[in-house]
Amino acid sequence: MALKRLGQILTDLGLIDEEQLQEMLTEQEARGGELLGRVGVSLGFFSDEQLGEALAEQWNTVFVTLYDKQITHSLVDIISKTMAEMYRVVPLKLEDNQLTIATADPQKIQIADELRVFLGYEIHVVVATDAEIDKAIETFYSGEVDTVESIVEELEEDKDLAEASKGLLNDGPIDLTSAEAMADSAPVRKLLNLVLLMAIKENASDIHLEPFESEFKIRMKADGVLQEMVPPPKHLSFAITTRIKVMANLDIAERRMPQDGRIELSVSGHPVDLRVSVLPTLFGESVVMRVLDRGVVSLDLDKLGMDDDILRPFREIIKRPNGIILVTGPTGSGKTTTLYSALSELNEPDDKIITTEDPIEYD
Fold first, then answer.
1. Taking the CA of residue 246 as centre, how many other CA atoms within 13 Å lie in the half-sphere pointing to its CB?
2. Residue-level pLDDT at 169
Protein backbone atom coordinates (compact mmCIF):
# COMPACT_ATOMS: atom_id res chain seq x y z
CA MET A 1 0.00 0.00 0.00
CA ALA A 2 1.47 3.37 -1.08
CA LEU A 3 2.22 5.94 1.59
CA LYS A 4 -0.31 8.74 1.60
CA ARG A 5 1.17 12.23 1.23
CA LEU A 6 1.12 14.40 4.34
CA GLY A 7 -0.42 17.33 2.45
CA GLN A 8 -3.34 15.15 1.36
CA ILE A 9 -3.87 13.91 4.94
CA LEU A 10 -3.87 17.47 6.32
CA THR A 11 -6.42 18.43 3.65
CA ASP A 12 -8.62 15.39 4.35
CA LEU A 13 -8.59 16.22 8.07
CA GLY A 14 -9.84 19.71 7.25
CA LEU A 15 -6.76 21.39 8.74
CA ILE A 16 -5.83 23.17 5.49
CA ASP A 17 -7.37 23.84 2.10
CA GLU A 18 -5.78 23.51 -1.36
CA GLU A 19 -4.70 27.15 -1.41
CA GLN A 20 -2.91 26.79 1.95
CA LEU A 21 -1.27 23.57 0.77
CA GLN A 22 0.16 25.38 -2.27
CA GLU A 23 1.40 28.16 0.00
CA MET A 24 3.11 25.56 2.21
CA LEU A 25 4.78 23.92 -0.81
CA THR A 26 6.02 27.26 -2.10
CA GLU A 27 7.36 28.21 1.32
CA GLN A 28 8.98 24.77 1.70
CA GLU A 29 10.90 25.29 -1.56
CA ALA A 30 11.98 28.76 -0.44
CA ARG A 31 13.28 27.31 2.85
CA GLY A 32 15.45 24.75 1.11
CA GLY A 33 13.30 21.67 1.64
CA GLU A 34 12.29 22.07 5.29
CA LEU A 35 9.79 19.41 6.39
CA LEU A 36 6.32 20.30 5.11
CA GLY A 37 4.64 19.80 8.48
CA ARG A 38 7.09 22.14 10.21
CA VAL A 39 6.39 24.77 7.53
CA GLY A 40 2.65 24.51 8.15
CA VAL A 41 3.08 24.90 11.92
CA SER A 42 5.32 27.95 11.47
CA LEU A 43 2.70 29.52 9.17
CA GLY A 44 0.05 28.99 11.85
CA PHE A 45 -2.15 26.70 9.75
CA PHE A 46 -2.30 24.00 12.46
CA SER A 47 -0.78 23.12 15.84
CA ASP A 48 2.05 20.73 16.78
CA GLU A 49 -0.55 18.30 18.17
CA GLN A 50 -2.54 18.33 14.94
CA LEU A 51 0.64 17.73 12.95
CA GLY A 52 1.46 14.80 15.24
CA GLU A 53 -1.96 13.25 14.65
CA ALA A 54 -1.55 13.64 10.87
CA LEU A 55 1.92 12.06 10.96
CA ALA A 56 0.58 9.17 13.05
CA GLU A 57 -2.12 8.54 10.45
CA GLN A 58 0.41 8.75 7.62
CA TRP A 59 2.71 6.16 9.23
CA ASN A 60 -0.06 3.91 10.54
CA THR A 61 0.75 4.40 14.21
CA VAL A 62 -0.69 6.38 17.13
CA PHE A 63 -0.20 9.87 18.53
CA VAL A 64 0.62 10.05 22.25
CA THR A 65 1.04 12.75 24.86
CA LEU A 66 4.06 12.49 27.14
CA TYR A 67 3.17 14.88 29.97
CA ASP A 68 1.21 12.11 31.72
CA LYS A 69 3.75 9.33 31.09
CA GLN A 70 6.08 7.91 33.72
CA ILE A 71 9.28 6.36 32.39
CA THR A 72 10.91 3.74 34.59
CA HIS A 73 14.61 3.71 35.41
CA SER A 74 14.98 0.43 33.52
CA LEU A 75 13.83 2.14 30.31
CA VAL A 76 16.24 5.03 30.85
CA ASP A 77 18.99 2.41 31.22
CA ILE A 78 18.12 0.94 27.81
CA ILE A 79 18.32 4.23 25.90
CA SER A 80 21.06 6.41 27.34
CA LYS A 81 20.92 10.19 27.48
CA THR A 82 23.42 10.47 24.62
CA MET A 83 21.31 8.19 22.44
CA ALA A 84 18.03 9.92 23.39
CA GLU A 85 19.46 13.35 22.51
CA MET A 86 21.12 12.16 19.30
CA TYR A 87 18.00 10.44 17.94
CA ARG A 88 15.47 12.64 19.79
CA VAL A 89 13.46 9.69 21.06
CA VAL A 90 11.90 8.74 24.39
CA PRO A 91 11.48 5.08 25.48
CA LEU A 92 7.95 4.32 26.66
CA LYS A 93 7.50 0.57 27.08
CA LEU A 94 9.38 -2.74 26.78
CA GLU A 95 7.24 -5.80 26.25
CA ASP A 96 8.13 -9.19 24.70
CA ASN A 97 11.41 -7.90 23.26
CA GLN A 98 9.60 -4.95 21.62
CA LEU A 99 10.65 -1.47 22.67
CA THR A 100 8.13 1.32 22.07
CA ILE A 101 9.67 4.73 21.44
CA ALA A 102 8.15 8.17 20.89
CA THR A 103 9.54 10.46 18.21
CA ALA A 104 8.45 13.63 16.45
CA ASP A 105 9.96 12.36 13.19
CA PRO A 106 8.34 9.02 12.23
CA GLN A 107 9.36 9.66 8.62
CA LYS A 108 12.98 9.01 9.63
CA ILE A 109 12.57 5.25 9.38
CA GLN A 110 16.32 4.77 9.78
CA ILE A 111 15.95 5.65 13.48
CA ALA A 112 14.13 2.38 14.19
CA ASP A 113 16.67 0.42 12.12
CA GLU A 114 19.64 1.98 13.89
CA LEU A 115 18.19 1.47 17.37
CA ARG A 116 17.38 -2.13 16.49
CA VAL A 117 21.08 -2.70 15.68
CA PHE A 118 22.36 -0.88 18.78
CA LEU A 119 19.87 -2.23 21.32
CA GLY A 120 18.87 -5.65 20.02
CA TYR A 121 15.12 -5.04 20.40
CA GLU A 122 12.32 -4.82 17.88
CA ILE A 123 11.32 -1.14 17.70
CA HIS A 124 7.74 0.14 17.64
CA VAL A 125 7.40 3.86 16.84
CA VAL A 126 4.67 6.19 18.09
CA VAL A 127 4.40 9.94 17.49
CA ALA A 128 4.69 12.84 19.96
CA THR A 129 5.28 16.56 19.50
CA ASP A 130 8.71 18.15 19.29
CA ALA A 131 8.13 20.14 22.46
CA GLU A 132 7.06 17.10 24.47
CA ILE A 133 10.05 15.06 23.26
CA ASP A 134 12.41 17.83 24.41
CA LYS A 135 10.59 18.20 27.74
CA ALA A 136 10.55 14.44 28.39
CA ILE A 137 14.29 14.11 27.71
CA GLU A 138 14.97 17.06 30.02
CA THR A 139 12.71 15.61 32.76
CA PHE A 140 13.56 11.93 32.70
CA TYR A 141 17.27 12.29 32.00
CA SER A 142 17.90 15.15 34.43
CA GLY A 143 20.84 14.28 36.63
CA GLU A 144 21.71 11.40 34.33
CA VAL A 145 25.51 11.38 33.94
CA ASP A 146 25.93 9.57 30.68
CA THR A 147 29.65 8.78 30.77
CA VAL A 148 31.91 5.79 30.31
CA GLU A 149 32.95 6.26 33.95
CA SER A 150 29.42 5.76 35.29
CA ILE A 151 28.84 2.66 33.14
CA VAL A 152 32.20 1.17 34.17
CA GLU A 153 31.27 1.67 37.83
CA GLU A 154 28.04 -0.24 37.26
CA LEU A 155 29.94 -3.04 35.53
CA GLU A 156 32.44 -3.32 38.37
CA GLU A 157 29.59 -3.71 40.86
CA ASP A 158 27.83 -6.41 38.83
CA LYS A 159 28.91 -9.62 40.62
CA ASP A 160 26.77 -11.90 38.43
CA LEU A 161 28.43 -10.58 35.29
CA ALA A 162 31.88 -11.06 36.81
CA GLU A 163 31.07 -14.66 37.76
CA ALA A 164 29.71 -15.45 34.30
CA SER A 165 32.86 -14.02 32.70
CA LYS A 166 35.37 -16.16 34.60
CA GLY A 167 34.74 -19.37 32.69
CA LEU A 168 35.12 -17.64 29.33
CA LEU A 169 38.58 -16.18 29.90
CA ASN A 170 40.44 -19.51 29.85
CA ASP A 171 42.14 -20.92 26.78
CA GLY A 172 40.69 -23.92 25.03
CA PRO A 173 37.14 -24.74 23.93
CA ILE A 174 34.48 -22.21 24.84
CA ASP A 175 30.76 -22.49 25.36
CA LEU A 176 29.46 -20.56 22.34
CA THR A 177 25.98 -20.19 23.82
CA SER A 178 27.38 -18.60 26.99
CA ALA A 179 29.76 -16.42 24.98
CA GLU A 180 26.95 -15.08 22.79
CA ALA A 181 24.74 -14.48 25.83
CA MET A 182 27.53 -12.53 27.54
CA ALA A 183 28.24 -10.49 24.42
CA ASP A 184 24.53 -9.72 24.07
CA SER A 185 24.04 -8.70 27.71
CA ALA A 186 22.66 -5.21 28.35
CA PRO A 187 25.72 -3.83 30.25
CA VAL A 188 28.12 -4.86 27.48
CA ARG A 189 25.84 -3.42 24.79
CA LYS A 190 25.44 -0.19 26.74
CA LEU A 191 29.19 0.34 27.18
CA LEU A 192 30.04 -0.47 23.58
CA ASN A 193 27.17 1.65 22.20
CA LEU A 194 28.37 4.64 24.22
CA VAL A 195 31.98 4.20 23.07
CA LEU A 196 30.91 3.97 19.42
CA LEU A 197 28.57 6.97 19.63
CA MET A 198 31.25 9.06 21.41
CA ALA A 199 33.83 8.14 18.78
CA ILE A 200 31.50 9.13 15.93
CA LYS A 201 30.37 12.30 17.71
CA GLU A 202 33.98 13.42 18.36
CA ASN A 203 35.14 12.54 14.82
CA ALA A 204 37.60 9.94 16.08
CA SER A 205 39.50 8.06 13.38
CA ASP A 206 40.22 4.87 15.37
CA ILE A 207 39.09 2.96 18.45
CA HIS A 208 41.64 0.70 20.14
CA LEU A 209 40.71 -2.04 22.64
CA GLU A 210 43.85 -3.54 24.15
CA PRO A 211 44.14 -6.37 26.71
CA PHE A 212 46.98 -6.31 29.22
CA GLU A 213 47.87 -8.62 32.11
CA SER A 214 45.73 -6.80 34.68
CA GLU A 215 43.62 -4.31 32.68
CA PHE A 216 41.70 -3.77 29.46
CA LYS A 217 42.29 -0.37 27.86
CA ILE A 218 40.01 1.52 25.49
CA ARG A 219 41.58 4.40 23.57
CA MET A 220 40.23 6.69 20.84
CA LYS A 221 42.36 8.50 18.29
CA ALA A 222 41.12 11.99 17.45
CA ASP A 223 43.15 14.63 15.59
CA GLY A 224 46.05 12.17 15.44
CA VAL A 225 46.27 11.76 19.25
CA LEU A 226 45.28 8.67 21.24
CA GLN A 227 43.11 9.49 24.24
CA GLU A 228 42.61 6.89 26.96
CA MET A 229 39.16 6.28 28.39
CA VAL A 230 38.29 4.82 31.78
CA PRO A 231 39.13 1.10 31.41
CA PRO A 232 36.32 -1.42 31.89
CA PRO A 233 36.86 -4.41 34.22
CA LYS A 234 39.44 -6.84 32.83
CA HIS A 235 37.03 -9.78 33.14
CA LEU A 236 34.77 -8.17 30.50
CA SER A 237 37.47 -8.07 27.82
CA PHE A 238 36.26 -11.32 26.24
CA ALA A 239 32.59 -10.25 26.28
CA ILE A 240 33.38 -6.87 24.69
CA THR A 241 35.60 -8.28 21.94
CA THR A 242 33.06 -11.03 21.29
CA ARG A 243 30.30 -8.44 20.92
CA ILE A 244 32.41 -6.61 18.33
CA LYS A 245 33.12 -9.87 16.48
CA VAL A 246 29.40 -10.69 16.40
CA MET A 247 28.62 -7.24 14.94
CA ALA A 248 31.40 -7.70 12.34
CA ASN A 249 30.28 -11.26 11.42
CA LEU A 250 33.57 -12.78 12.56
CA ASP A 251 34.16 -16.24 14.05
CA ILE A 252 33.73 -15.88 17.82
CA ALA A 253 35.17 -19.37 18.41
CA GLU A 254 38.48 -18.44 16.76
CA ARG A 255 40.83 -16.75 19.23
CA ARG A 256 44.27 -17.73 17.86
CA MET A 257 44.18 -16.27 14.34
CA PRO A 258 43.90 -12.66 13.10
CA GLN A 259 40.53 -11.70 11.65
CA ASP A 260 39.28 -8.71 9.66
CA GLY A 261 35.69 -7.59 9.29
CA ARG A 262 33.38 -4.68 8.76
CA ILE A 263 30.48 -3.15 10.70
CA GLU A 264 28.04 -0.97 8.78
CA LEU A 265 26.05 1.48 10.87
CA SER A 266 23.86 4.46 10.19
CA VAL A 267 23.94 7.06 12.94
CA SER A 268 21.50 9.99 12.71
CA GLY A 269 21.21 9.33 8.99
CA HIS A 270 24.98 9.26 8.41
CA PRO A 271 26.39 6.03 6.96
CA VAL A 272 29.31 4.96 9.16
CA ASP A 273 31.72 2.12 8.38
CA LEU A 274 33.81 0.48 11.08
CA ARG A 275 36.74 -1.55 9.72
CA VAL A 276 37.49 -4.14 12.38
CA SER A 277 40.86 -5.82 12.86
CA VAL A 278 41.23 -8.50 15.55
CA LEU A 279 44.70 -9.71 16.52
CA PRO A 280 45.52 -12.37 19.15
CA THR A 281 48.01 -11.26 21.82
CA LEU A 282 49.52 -12.74 24.98
CA PHE A 283 46.66 -11.50 27.18
CA GLY A 284 43.71 -11.82 24.81
CA GLU A 285 42.50 -10.36 21.53
CA SER A 286 43.39 -6.80 20.59
CA VAL A 287 40.81 -4.96 18.48
CA VAL A 288 41.24 -1.87 16.31
CA MET A 289 38.23 -0.25 14.66
CA ARG A 290 38.76 2.33 11.94
CA VAL A 291 35.88 4.82 11.90
CA LEU A 292 34.80 6.04 8.47
CA ASP A 293 31.91 8.50 8.66
CA ARG A 294 31.05 8.68 4.98
CA GLY A 295 28.11 10.98 5.62
CA VAL A 296 30.29 13.97 6.51
CA VAL A 297 32.84 13.56 3.71
CA SER A 298 32.67 15.93 0.76
CA LEU A 299 34.75 14.65 -2.15
CA ASP A 300 35.43 18.09 -3.57
CA LEU A 301 38.93 19.56 -3.99
CA ASP A 302 37.56 23.05 -3.33
CA LYS A 303 36.42 21.95 0.15
CA LEU A 304 39.66 20.33 1.33
CA GLY A 305 41.09 23.54 2.74
CA MET A 306 44.06 23.78 0.37
CA ASP A 307 45.55 27.21 -0.29
CA ASP A 308 45.15 28.46 -3.87
CA ASP A 309 48.94 28.33 -4.29
CA ILE A 310 48.79 24.56 -3.63
CA LEU A 311 45.42 23.74 -5.20
CA ARG A 312 46.21 25.31 -8.58
CA PRO A 313 49.36 23.25 -9.32
CA PHE A 314 47.74 20.16 -7.77
CA ARG A 315 44.90 20.39 -10.28
CA GLU A 316 47.41 20.73 -13.11
CA ILE A 317 49.39 17.69 -11.91
CA ILE A 318 46.43 15.31 -11.60
CA LYS A 319 45.43 16.08 -15.21
CA ARG A 320 48.75 14.92 -16.62
CA PRO A 321 48.56 11.69 -18.69
CA ASN A 322 50.97 9.75 -16.45
CA GLY A 323 52.98 9.97 -13.25
CA ILE A 324 52.73 9.27 -9.51
CA ILE A 325 51.22 11.40 -6.76
CA LEU A 326 52.39 10.56 -3.25
CA VAL A 327 50.15 11.73 -0.39
CA THR A 328 51.48 11.28 3.15
CA GLY A 329 50.28 12.14 6.63
CA PRO A 330 49.06 10.65 9.94
CA THR A 331 45.84 8.70 10.36
CA GLY A 332 42.79 10.87 9.80
CA SER A 333 44.68 13.71 8.12
CA GLY A 334 42.75 13.33 4.85
CA LYS A 335 45.03 11.30 2.57
CA THR A 336 42.29 9.07 1.17
CA THR A 337 39.80 11.94 1.00
CA THR A 338 42.31 13.98 -1.01
CA LEU A 339 42.87 11.17 -3.51
CA TYR A 340 39.15 10.41 -3.83
CA SER A 341 38.45 14.11 -4.40
CA ALA A 342 41.07 14.16 -7.15
CA LEU A 343 39.50 11.07 -8.77
CA SER A 344 36.05 12.63 -8.44
CA GLU A 345 37.27 15.65 -10.38
CA LEU A 346 38.83 13.45 -13.08
CA ASN A 347 35.80 11.18 -13.40
CA GLU A 348 34.33 11.91 -16.85
CA PRO A 349 32.12 9.77 -19.11
CA ASP A 350 34.93 9.35 -21.66
CA ASP A 351 37.47 8.06 -19.09
CA LYS A 352 37.65 4.76 -17.24
CA ILE A 353 39.12 4.84 -13.73
CA ILE A 354 40.26 1.77 -11.77
CA THR A 355 41.58 1.97 -8.20
CA THR A 356 43.51 -0.65 -6.23
CA GLU A 357 42.65 -0.36 -2.53
CA ASP A 358 42.87 -2.44 0.62
CA PRO A 359 40.55 -1.76 2.28
CA ILE A 360 38.11 0.18 0.06
CA GLU A 361 37.25 3.17 2.25
CA TYR A 362 34.57 4.99 0.22
CA ASP A 363 32.01 3.57 -2.20
1. 21
2. 56
